[in-house]
Amino acid sequence: MPEIATIDFHVTCECNQECAYCWGPQDIQAVDTDTALAIVSRIASGPARRIVFTGGDPLKRPDVGVLIRAAKAAGLEVALSTTGDELTEAFLVEFGGYIDLISLPLDGASEEISTRTKKEGHFTAVMEALQLLAGYPHIDVKVATPVTRHNLADVPNIADLLDQWAARLPNRMFYNVFQAYPRSMATDVDWGELVVTDDEFRELRSEVSATEHPYRLNWLSHETLDKLYVMVFPDGTLTIPSGSDFRSYGSFLAIPDIDEFIRTTDFDAPKHLQHAEGWHRTL
Questions:
Q1: Total domains, the chain
Q2: Is there a contact between 238 and 255 (Cβ–Cβ < 8 Å)?
Q3: Which residues contact 66 (CB under 8 A, 6 or more apart)?
Q4: Please, what is the Cα angle at 271 between 139 and 38, to 5 degrees?
Q5: Domain of 24?
């Protein structure tokens, strides 16, 4: 049985947002197109069935469409994790046919709550992105909310808002609710102003889950998130977040057998595979 179902390829550090809780890499030089294509090919030749193009915001990388087409041609399921700020009709017309899922962050059910952790206008951008995606029903839509002290009370309102969108969208929808985790490449984060307690996160889950929702709802606590992801950073290095650290294992392209290598790390393969199963296109 493969150890890995999904690999996240952080193709750039560039982003329109500056979220304090962000796990994304910062100030790392991205590889060129040829090397990025080699990484995509290497992922396709290994055990993973899905690639997630992320960042930063992958739409800030000019050749991301080339990488997306190559991944789909190589037989991978293709997901795009973007802030939504850069998503356009023109991009979807050209590349939407190669994409299986688009993930969008939503920090509040209103612009007022959203601007506590996102730049002004982000809430509106995500609403516009959802409307655009209605024209591409084959693309699954995932909305992700990092729960912080700034939006803890608003998450039920976000779930209600997504109930309304799910009734209008022809797309399959997922909602991921993350417990903001004290891990970031930024060094000046005041986690005391961000992180909610385990009890608060459990109470939130009970409150929101008490109502049925027309989409798959996934709750990702601190414990669930730990050692869950295999990442290729913009410079082509393999990284597995563990605890508060970003553990780097050198060049991804230099690893001859990904599954075998992963077994030498503390990556939690059973948890990863269980989490990834929910996204399979055959479900």
A1: 1
A2: yes
A3: 33, 37
A4: 55
A5: 6-277
| Residue 42, domain member (yes or no) | yes
* Domain assignment present for 283: no
Domain assignment present for 282:
no
Q: Please check whether residue 93 lies inside any domain of the structure.
A: yes
pTM, two decimal places: 0.94
**Three-state secondary structure along the chain?**
CCCCCEEEEECCCCCCCCCCCCCCCCCCCCCCHHHHHHHHHHHHHCCCCEEEEECCCHHHCCCHHHHHHHHHHCCCEEEEECCCCCCCHHHHHHHHHHCCEEEEECCCCCHHHHCCCCCCCHHHHHHHHHHHHCCCCCCEEEEEEEECCCCHHHHHHHHHHHHHHHHHCCCCEEEEEEECCCCCCCCCCCHHHCCCCHHHHHHHHHHHHCCCCCCEEEEECHHHHCCCCCEECCCCEEEEEECCEEEEEEEHHHCCCHHHHHCCCCCCHHHHHHHHHCCCCCC
Give dist(CA 89, CA 69) in Å, integer.
17
* CATH number, domain with residue 21: 3.20.20.70
* pLDDT values of the chain reduced to their tens digit, one per residue, 283 residues: 467 889 999 999 999 998 888 888 889 999 999 999 999 999 999 989 999 999 999 999 999 999 999 999 999 999 999 999 999 999 999 999 999 999 999 999 999 999 999 999 999 999 999 999 999 999 999 999 999 999 999 999 999 999 999 999 999 999 999 998 877 666 677 878 889 999 999 999 999 999 999 999 999 888 877 778 899 999 999 998 887 778 889 999 999 898 888 888 888 777 787 777 766 654 3
- By residue count, the chain amounts to 283
